[in-house]
Amino acid sequence: MIKQTIVALALAFAAPAFAQDEPADAPTAPAEAARTLLPDSVNLEVVDGSTVPEDCRYPETISDTTSFELACVTMPRFGAGLIGAEYLAQLGRLGWRQGNYIEGGMTAVRTDENNCERVLNLFPSDYPPGEAQSSTTVLWFVLERTPRCAS
Fold first, then answer.
1. From CA 4, how far away is CA 10, in angstroms rounded?
2. What element of type H or E holds 50?
3. Cα Rg, the chain, nearest whole Å
4. What is the reported pTM?
5. Residue-wise pLDDT tens for the chain (151 aa)?
6. 96 near 69, Cβ under 8 Å?
7. Quick check: 93 and 112 in contact, CB under 8 A?
8. What whole-number distance in Å separates Cα of residue 49 and Cα of residue 79?
């Protein structure tokens, strides 16, 4: 199922992004911040059907907040492909493009104003981690704090 989610995420990156209407009642600033992932950098809206858990249960390999800016959402397994595709569509609208497949996930990249690449790692997994075929999945967003610049 995780491989299917990765494939669905990749396909969503290749698909065109469609504009969405803004809601009639704009949320207040604090409510909006609670509905935003990585607000100081990527600024993704939390997609309907997913939630930000109190504990993301990051694997030890991606828990270093000095190297990474972290966020996560959980979602029901049955809707994970469509919800994940919505996140990728948002990334596309924000100027990110599909990067590489990496162990356990994929990357999204965006070139910044200094011609350096910002790299956002995306890792889908069972939630809680280690509970195979759980009814809930997690999508970890792991932004590398240091841009990758050509020498």
1. 10
2. none
3. 15
4. 0.79
5. 555 555 455 444 444 333 334 444 444 444 444 689 999 999 999 999 999 999 999 999 999 999 999 999 999 999 999 999 999 999 999 999 999 999 999 999 999 999 999 999 999 999 999 999 899 999 999 999 999 998 7
6. no
7. no
8. 8
